[in-house]
Amino acid sequence: MALKVYGLKKCSTCQKAEDWLKDNKLAYRFIDVKEDGIDKDQVKSWIKAVGGWEKLVNRAGYTWRGIPEDQRTDLTEAGAVKLILANPSLIRRPLIENKGEVSVGFSEKTRSSLT
Fold first, then answer.
1. 3-state secondary structure string, the chain?
2. pLDDT, tens only, 3-13
3. Which tens digits make up the pLDDT trace of 29-68?
4. Separation between Cα atoms, residue 78 and residue 60, nearest integer Å
5. What is the mean pLDDT of residues 9-23?
6. How far apart are CA 112 and CA 115, in angstroms?
7. Cα separation, 62 vs 72, whole angstroms
């Protein structure tokens, strides 16, 4: 089965990842988390796979900073799931599912695991 790449069409990191995948002739399916949607079970499985909601959520981005402070403080996993479902752009991008593994971002380590 082809790789699944979750992200945003307009995200520059996602665009770079797609270019790299095409250049390396790797089959993949791109899923736009805003347009195509995500569900609670997916988010929970991603949190488990990456080692916690803190590794899944991009806390350096505009979306995170736009969330009221009271919703970000003392956040639990359940609270993070709700925030992610309401604001899918909180997910670190791209999120890649490959052979049962999940990675976020597009580091050299991620690239080497795909080839």
1. CCEEEEECCCCHHHHHHHHHHHHCCCCEEEEECCCCCCCHHHHHHHHHHHCCHHHHECCCCHHHHHCCHHHHCCCCHHHHHHHHHHCHHHECCCEEEECCEEEECCCHHHHHHHC
2. 999 999 999 99
3. 999 999 999 999 999 999 999 999 999 999 998 999 999 9
4. 20
5. 95
6. 6
7. 13
Q: How far apart are CA 77 and CA 103, in angstroms?
A: 18
Choosing from 11, 31, 49, 67, which is the catalytic residue? 11
CA-CA-CA-CA dihedral for 47, 48, 53, 55, to nearest 10: -90
**From edge to edge, which strands make up the β-sheet containing 3-7?**
28-32, 3-7, 95-98, 101-104
User: Does the annotation mark 11 as catalytic?
Assistant: yes
Domains (range + CATH), the chain: 3-114 (3.40.30.10)
Amino acid at the residue 90: L
Q: What is the pLDDT of residue 1?
A: 53
pTM of the complete model: 0.92
Q: Taking 80 as the threshold, does the pLDDT of residue 115 lie above it?
A: no
